[in-house]
């Protein structure tokens, strides 16, 4: 396993934290390695998600007494849960580590972002420093450094990444107001044709 540069423990000893970053950067893996004994509430689990959607106050019951750190993975799945997190920070002095891949979704929905009660950290794809002697410049330029793709032996996975990039690029103009769509269109066509990869 690659040792990541981001150490979250010193942050969580003082304050709650949002850990954001693109999908497949290794957020969940990082948390499981740095906090193996901390309660981990996984909102991708349908049963847990349904349980908390029905009544967000149930979060309090899920956390053992005297617990000082709690992880909630994929917080963007239930943004309304942030009000309960806020309450538990104040009432029980718990520091939460909240992960998500979509800060934009949280901001767009206008939810409680804990008003200064939480720091924000971003987990980026693997860096050259983290990869150390496993870093290959050509490979990194070709497929990027998302862990699941970078270490894949299957070329099909690399093709999926190319499609993922193209789909993201197709959505990208909707997030920008000023973009030259003619040049953008030519770029995406060339990318699909494999001219830039």
Outline of this structure?
This protein has 197 residues and is of the alpha/beta class.
Main features:
alpha/beta, single chain, five-stranded parallel sheet, 5 strands
Could you describe the 3D structure shown?
The chain is of the alpha/beta class and 197 residues long. 45% of the residues lie in helices and 12% in strands. About 3% of the residues have low confidence.
Please specify the SSE layout and strand pairing.
Blueprint (H helix, E strand, L loop, with lengths): L8 H4 L3 E5 L6 H8 L5 E3 L3 H9 L3 H5 L6 E5 L7 H12 L2 E6 L2 H6 L9 E5 L5 H4 L5 H7 L3 H4 L4 H17 L9 H13 L4
Range of helix content: 40-55%
Ranges where pLDDT stays below 50 over 5 or more residues in a row are 175-179
What would you call the structural class? alpha/beta
Number of DSSP helical runs? 11
pLDDT averaged residue by residue: 82
Q: What is the radius of gyration?
A: 19 Å
Distance from N terminus to C terminus (CA atoms, Å) equals 27 Å
Number of beta strands:
5
The strand order across the widest sheet is: 2-3-4-1-5
Strand content: 5-15%
Assembly type of the chains comes to single chain
Order of helices and strands: HEHEHHEHEHEHHHHH
Shape: globular
